[in-house]
Amino acid sequence: MSDHDTESHHHPRPLSAAALRAKAIEALLVEKGLLASDALDKIVETYEKDVGPLNGAKVVARAWNDPAYKKRLLHDGAAAIAELGFGGLQAEHLRVVENTPKVHNVVCCTLCSCYPWPVLGLPPTWYKSLEYRARIVREPRQVLRELGLDLASSVELRVWDSSSEMRYLVLPERPPNSEGRSEAELAELVTRDAMIGVARAVTPNR
Amino acid sequence: MNSVENLAKRIAADANGPAAIPRRNGEPVFNEPWESRAFGMAVGLCERGLFEWDEFRDHLITEISSADARQEESTYYERFLRALEHLMIEKRICSDEEINQLSAAESVRREADH
Fold first, then answer.
1. Residues B35-53 pLDDT 10s
2. I need a surface site. Which of A13, A113, A140, B85 has the fewest CB within 10 A?
3. How big, in percent rounded to 5, are the helix, strand and coil portions of chain A?
4. Euclidean distance between the first and final Cα of chain A, in Å?
5. Which chain A positions have a beta carbon within 8 Å of B23's beta carbon?
6. How far apart are CA B101 and CA A141, in angstroms?
7. Rounded-to-integer distance, Cα A150 and Cα A196, Å
8. How remote is the C-alpha of A99 from its chain's centroid?
9. Is B64–A111 a contact, with Cβ atoms under 8 angstroms apart?
10. Between vectors from CA A180 to CA A178 and to CA A184, what angle results, nearest 5°?
11. How far is A179 from chain B (nearest CA, A)?
């Protein structure tokens, strides 16, 4: 804080400079015939709308309802996820780690932002922040507590650091009061944060 | 204020993100439209075989760690865009000058629009 700028207020200028450069690069790619604008629209739309945590939620719900599927999922995550029709970029090497009453798993990427896109969509802003990347490894229990997840000290905490070789998906514990629900209803209880390991699955009110 | 909000606020300040941690399924992950375009360009060029995703990732790691080391206030997608630019230049997909020229032209055009 000591070597503060003489100008204390920040204009959003760097952001608009980046926006200009992004526009310029897009125009160049279109001009060179490398990437058409409508192809780019399609990619963005796919990742914003179709690819998302709902895919992962379906995987988790299936595993909760089908022990044989769960076994395959824990044995070979990418293959079991492909069974449901999900896969592709960033999911070639996917390991599913299971939460139990004794073990809690949480996922991060300390170097950049590796994340299993086909099942979770794109990472949230906080996942990419320096604070999360650094602190979840150094003091995971404290970070989880700050995020509203208080774990008993007897629970073993495992932090998985993603890499180009391996991505991780957390299989959360099935919540209480969830008996007799269909797979689609179970999927509604599975949030993105539960599959990163910073929250539990939602407990329904009945 | 509870501690959940505390971390959310600090993380948001750190990443210039929205004021709260997005916690539900299906929330947008881009703060600005250009961020989604930058993301789409990296994916699209990779899908078309112009580079491997791991090559992009190496550039991204370099940009993030050097910006972290400088304690730079840039956002994730500003770093992402720089990584993409550097990789495109390295792969001779386009040159720095081309990007500079076009973004300057775009800037002038926008001023004129006002």
1. 889 989 998 998 899 998 8
2. A13
3. 45, 10, 45
4. 51
5. 191-193, 199
6. 49
7. 15
8. 16
9. yes
10. 75
11. 22
- Alpha-carbon span B40 to A26, nearest angstrom: 10
Query: Residue A103 pairs with which residues in a beta bridge?
Result: A156
Specify the long-range contacts of residues B96-100, CB closer than 8 Å, at least 24 apart.
B98/A24, B98/A28, B99/A21, B99/A24, B99/A25, B99/A28
Please write the tens of the pLDDT for every residue from A126-141: 898 888 999 999 999 9
Residue A27 in tokens: 């125009």
Q: Pick from A137, A196, A126: which is nearest to A167 by CA? A: A196
B80's tokens = 């992402």
| Residue in chain A lying closest to B108 (CA) | A20
What pTM was computed for the model? 0.73
Q: What ipTM was assigned to the predicted interfaces of this complex?
A: 0.76
Cβ(A178)–Cβ(A190) under 8 Å?
A: no
* Three-state DSSP state, A198: coil
- Tokens linked to A168: 């991780």
* Side chain identity at residue A143, one-letter code: V
Measured between alpha carbons, how far is A135 from A111 in angstroms, rounded to an integer? Answer: 13
